[in-house]
Design brief:
The chain is α/β, with parallel strands linked by helices. It is built from 6 helices and 7 strands; from the N terminus they run H-E-E-H-E-H-E-H-E-H-E-E-H. The protein has a single domain (about 5-165), classed as Rossmann fold (3-Layer(aba) Sandwich), CATH 3.40.50. The protein is about 35% helix and about 20% strand. The longest helix is centred in the first third of the chain and has 12 residues, at about 40-50.
């Protein structure tokens, strides 16, 4: 049994998928709700169990020696949060240069409660012409769930609303930090 499967089992977590998402060479995986650092740990283990190697964004302040070595080996991409406008374009270029790349993005962009999601994930997937794969962690049920992929149609609201509707019944680790987005 792979280490990720063993750790998830010991923690009492299950991974569910509604389609074989490993068929996609490139994708933007959005994970919500994001209210705790534990979201990263459980999410990373779930993707390892699915045999998906993904990149993720983390603020550049975490990139100091020796932590930067560990983060890069895990797939971290440093983010300058003071320059958010250039990040989506940079990530599209990175994806287009790669033969395979999954990018994990938390649409909230933070573990704190937010009224609106950042839309960079949508722009990135649309510009790179790759699917968005919605996923969530339900801490009450201890389920990491991966929903079917979809390609952006250009209508953000109609594309994202089904995922938001599902999240209404999902239990975040820190419930007070999760607010359903208004956008």
């Amino acid at each position: 049994m792979p280490l990720s499967s063993l750790l998830l089992k010991l923690l009492g977590w299950k991974v569910e998928t509604e389609e074989d998402v490993t068929k996609y060479k490139k994708a933007v995986l959005i994970m919500a709700p994001h209210t705790s650092i534990y979201d990263f740990i459980i999410g990373w283990l779930a993707l390892k169990k699915l045999n998906v190697k993904a990149k993720f964004l983390i603020k550049k302040e975490f990139f100091f020696f020796p932590l930067s070595i560990i983060l890069k080996s895990l797939g971290a991409i440093p983010v300058d949060r003071g320059d958010p406008k250039n990040l989506p374009r940079y990530l599209v270029k990175l994806i287009n240069k790669s033969s395979e790349m999954w990018l994990i993005i938390t649409p909230e962009g933070t573990r704190k409660p937010v009224k609106n999601w950042k839309r960079g994930f949508y722009y990135i997937a649309d510009s790179a012409q790759i699917p968005i794969i919605p996923s969530y962690l339900d801490y009450q049920k201890k389920i990491a769930h991966v929903l079917p992929a979809f390609y952006p149609t250009g209508n953000y609201y109609s594309d994202i609303q089904p995922f938001i509707d599902i999240l209404a019944n999902v239990n975040a680790r820190n419930k007070n930090n999760f607010v359903l987005p208004k956008n």
